[in-house]
Specification:
With 247 residues, the chain is α/β, with parallel strands linked by helices. 38% of the residues lie in helices and 17% in strands. It has ten helices and nine strands. It has a six-stranded parallel sheet, sandwiched between helices. A three-stranded antiparallel sheet has the order 5-4-6, with helices on one face. β4 and β5 form a beta hairpin. α1 packs across α10, α6 runs parallel beside α10 and α8 runs parallel beside α9. It starts with a helix and ends with a helix. The chain binds 2'-O-acetyl adenosine-5-diphosphoribose.
Length: 247
Amino acid sequence: MDELINQAADDLAGARHVVALTGAGISVESGIAPFRGKGGLWEKYDPMEVAHIDAFMRDPGRVWSLLVKDMKVTLDTASPNDGHKGLAKLEEMGILSTVITQNIDGLHQAAGNTDVIEFHGSFARQRCMDCNQKYDTREVDISEIPPRCRCGGILRPDAVFFGEMIPQDAMWRSQQAASDCDLMLVVGTSAVVQPAALMPVYAKQSGAKIIEINPEKTPLTLDISDYLIMGQAGEVMNRIIMQMENK
Ligand code: OAD
């Protein structure tokens, strides 16, 4: 691994425009379960039952009880780990410009990144399905499920369920960022959910170098990524930053 850490430090230092694409894996070290793989949410739940818009529309209370309530409890107190902090440090060093994240946990912003594209929306807010009023998730009272707006409407996360469109602005800005970068860091994503997993493909097609950080191989590893640094996001980011600071 040492050689790849060294290589990543050199590649980052030499890049002109760096963008990161992140997924649930970067938040695992913050105590947030990923979706797929060991300990993943989809081992416990069928995503079509708890994360599809049709399931939510059919029975919002059930989806709140099965998944959204627990998510609120976890995310209300989660804090950034060394993986998020490493990306924030790269921005501070003037190296990283934009983070495209599939995560809805707000931890990149909490770590200090200032240009974060929330590809699947955000859990920081809940919105009323009737009047669209938005609420800070931390302030939503969940003593009754599903929680309701002052107008009586049911609240839903301001995030993308399966079966819903990607917010247009996030889609457009992500494609733009992917096509403009000369290095993309792909951290903690299984790269199986579209269209997010296309961003490294756009970057590659535009000539960018792709560096993956993940304890496992993904569908990108073989022909899209230039190399995979196999490890946990926090540890790998710490080692890359340390190497860059020592040069
Ligand atoms: P997944 O749960 O599919 O994948 C998590 C990835 O993180 C896997 O490739 C793991 O190997 C890796 N991983 C685990 N621990 C890690 C660690 N400590 N450091 C780095 N990587 C680690 O999550 P996503 O790819 O984000 O969409 O999933 C994409 C989308 O599927 C989500 O945004 C969500 C989900 O269904 C919606 O809900 C619309």
